[in-house]
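dumping these here so i dont lose them again. two proteins, back to back, each one seq then structure tokens. dont judge the mess
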Amino acid sequence: MFKIRKLPPLSAIGRSRSVYTPFRSLRIITSPRKPTFTHVSPLTFRRSIGGSSRGRALAANLGGIKFIVQAITGVYCGIIIVCAASFYLLYRDADERQNIPGELSMENIINSVLAINKDDVCEAPRHATKHYRRLLFNLAKEEYPDLKEEELENRYDIPILSTRFLMEHDKSNKFINFYFDMILRYCKCLLSKGEVDISINILSRVINDDFVFYQLGDSEKLSSSCRVLVKITPDYPSKIKLLERSIDMLVENSNKTMRFNDTEENPFILLENSKISDELINCLNDLASTLAKYSQQKDVKINKKDRSKLLNDSLEIYLSELRNLQNIRKSIESKQTNQFNYPLFNVERANLICLINATKAHISEVLWIKGHKTKAIDWAEEILNELYFDRLSDPRVNPILLDVLGNLEVMYADMKKPKEVERVAELKKSVKIYEGHKRFNIPWYERVMKRISNTIYLSSPIGLVQKGVDERFKMKTRVKELYEFEDEDEEYYGNGTSGNWLNRILFSPSTASCSQESRSK
């Protein structure tokens, strides 16, 4: 028989948990340590007491010096932070305006930032020229390491990197676009300094290179530079060839979405519903205008038939352009299309109205030259009726109105209609071009960046802090423009002692020696 073991009562189980749980020793509760005593001789005790008293006395005497050291350290750290933040601000702003590749050296990055900042922000292209030149010269030395400035016939001339060098050294697309954009910027700055011949020379080398013009660089910027070259080229046949080349390049790079008439008589008639871009419209306007002006050149031997063909070609280009612009305006106003359908063209209604009426004004002028005087007046009056009441709301229409009113005044005078001449003259008095609207319509960011940049160039980044403190307790003063304190040919950063200090930081000795050679030359 099995014996049944009796379980303890529930009350006993609650009181005695040791029956079910193992015993755990409380080792975490340690007993207090017993005090230990170290024998110290009287001599050692006196020395320790004397050393501690001398330390307290020395610390009390160094209290003022310690505060000065801490203050100097704080000021030094503050200067470093202000300088670093200022340089980073300039770099980020320049990088947003023009994508700067990371494969550039530190010196070339600094020259890029200074050139872009002085050109775009400070609106001082003459002062930006030296930085563009230094940057392009340094990049040219990568292919021509033995290149020296004194070997160049013109101090503003720069060698251009060959396409073979760009391909063999696996230069990124970002670097290639940046490089040719810098060349185009440099040429525009040279024009501001009056160096027309060297600017034409450099631009021609870029645009006449088929591989560079059609496959490398940004097509819109290359086309814009081509139009700049057209403006400074004196020969009309050369102007026409350059514009035709630019239009061909834009069409080829658009994946054939920009379509033209294939006839040999005039291959630049824009087909209906063709895609367009702002740059394409500018090129077509310049081409049509150049053809019309070329037909009126008296010092060029052109027979009557050729002159008539030039005018007809110009008129056909304007009419095809007007048809497409009006179709886009209708589709935009009816909300059938939007900006997404024309990524390279500004479909804003005000912009379309200005372009359409400017094209009508050109058509009116060509019709007048061709002898269709009544039609020319009708086109001009149509522009007047559409734009006259917008002259106060949109300042962009005022230049178009003034040109149209001036043309009407001449046309009515030629048609012997004095009353119409008086009417047009009265209307002309109420149309004015306000030059100041551009000054006051500058975005706040551009104004702040220009103020910061000029202050840094004048008195280093510390000048930002100094100017802020001065304006806190004194009257606000005007920030000097760049041309008021900086020489446009001196290759240094800033002015005076602060400029020399920053020059030693920003430029290597080789750059300083190069700048000295250029100044001596």
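---- next one ----
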Amino acid sequence: MGYRLPNTFSRRQQLERVLDQVQKLKPAVFDTAQKWPLELQEFTQANNISVFTTTTQANLASYFKRLLQSAPQISLVMAALPNSEEQAELIGWLRSHIHPQAFMHIAQNSDLLAGCIVRTDNMVYDFSLRSSLFAQSDSLAMRLQNG
């Protein structure tokens, strides 16, 4: 079953927390006022489903377990962290252009100056200003010497 992941649902840790919560739900005693993670609320709203039935809970638990094993994880290192709206935009772009179930971990490294470094399981792409300046350092030194 293909569910849609909300753009605010961006990290594997969120998925693990929601999976844990879904596995703990007991439909017979489930109270609608019971506190459950915001991510689970957003997920059920985005997919227009209810977690009140054991069938739905079993389907969700199975789906979340498959995601934990197979969903791509991308790490993005930036000079400055995006706010939550910008992060949701990045996740939305990632899911519409790269993979609909991808997760993104965003970290900060102010040494980058600008740009970002993107890491996947087997590749690293450095789009930082720092990397660009280092790559052109000989050319820059020559230009400075020649005036």
